[in-house]
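Re: the 324-residue chain
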Amino acid sequence: MKLCPLCEKENPSSANHCMHCGSVLSPNEKLEESDKIFRELNEIKKTNQLLKSALESELKNKQETANGKTENIIVPPPQPAPEQKNDAKTVAQPKSNKKTLALIFAMAAIALIVFGVFYYQNIYLPEKIDREAPRYYTFADKTVLRSTREAGVDYSKIASLNYGSELITYSHDINGWSEVKDDLGNKGFISSAYLLGKTDFSILNNIFGDTESKQCIGTTKCRLALLNYYKINALNDNWKVFCRPKDAKINTVLYPRIYSKNSKFTDFAVIIKDTQSGERKILIFGFDDDETLAWTKDGKAPNEGYIKKIYLTSSGTINVDYSD
């Protein structure tokens, strides 16, 4: 017996075509053209029947759902997972990922080290040096900051600093130059002769009892002479200088030539006052031709009045006339 592959019914062993559906029972390359066509028609007919049956089932399910019945959901059978190919590329993938991660971490570590070195050298270290560097202060009314250790030339001027400018000081040569940075970030050199440390500047600045006194005592040699006198005699903060305007004819400050009318520099006389007791003193300073302090005289001054005249008597003493 032969089983028809199309309708699945039995046929005699000698039959070439199904007795029920007419399909060819056994393949034959020499089938006539009409047999081939007949077979294809039967296959199309069977396909149409399957489609018709599926459509009717679908319509029935929709109708039952509309009538409040639960729709029958046909769950397709699970498909087997695609077989993983255990080729060389698949096996090598985890190693490749590990190498990539290792490379990323190495590059990140290098970048972190480079940034750390850059930060330390260009940010942290300069800030640390500036923070720990001593501060010096200009005590001249105008002090030139220069790009070189060379005075008296215009090309090296960077800035002109006012009295009391605070400077970060990297090096300080008492008899030479100081390497500094101002509050605007300008770096350069200033003659150390125009700088004072914090303590000395505080003493000097406290001597000036008003704006006029600072204007009347404008030279660095006179300011240093006053500072040295205060330090040597341990005068407290009560002792101050008070002046009239700079263009006043008589004042508490005078610049005479006492010992020689032809001396290169004038001498310097000033009245200082104790603001608590009201006591006053007169201080007189003489200078050599290199502007260094040569001698100092002091004495009691009247409680009122200004310096009118200072001169040398025939006996060699210094006499001071005061105005009423």
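Residues 7-53 form one domain.
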